[in-house]
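Thanks for the sequence, V.! I ran 6-pyruvoyltetrahydropterin synthase right away. Repeating your input here for the record:
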Amino acid sequence: REIRVALEDMKFSAAHFVAFRGFREPLHGHNYTVGVRAGGTMLQADGYLADFGDVKKVVRVACKQINNRTIVPTRSDVLSVQVQRGADGRGGQVEIGCEDGGRMVLPEADCVLLPIVHSSAEELAEHLWWDILVAQKLASILAARGVEWLEVSVSERPGQGAQYR
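Predicted structure:
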């Protein structure tokens, strides 16, 4: 048994670039969509495997945290990422130094610093899986209902995306 939730409002718009040894693509953006599948062997007494409302709520929160931001991968091995706070402790800047000598400085409020190596759809799907299950506390809700697995998909555009289970 399986459920799937992939609604039009489960989305975020974000800028990103992928960088690895010897390569950095230009900063650009996508209108990402997020989907979730969950599975288990038994329905509960209420006839559901899981409550769609529980899933939708946490996915929307996760998307909102990234929406209209530049995704900065803080675990990159080819980028240096430094946050410099203003004198008042607010209004900081994120400075990104690139292996090729390029440098970007962005307002901190315009960035989301994620503990990933690359801002690829594959790593975003894995990050959101952990964020949805752990940070948003969906794991305990789903486990109590007998859900055995969860898959998160992130698409950069229709027909082009990645899944993490």
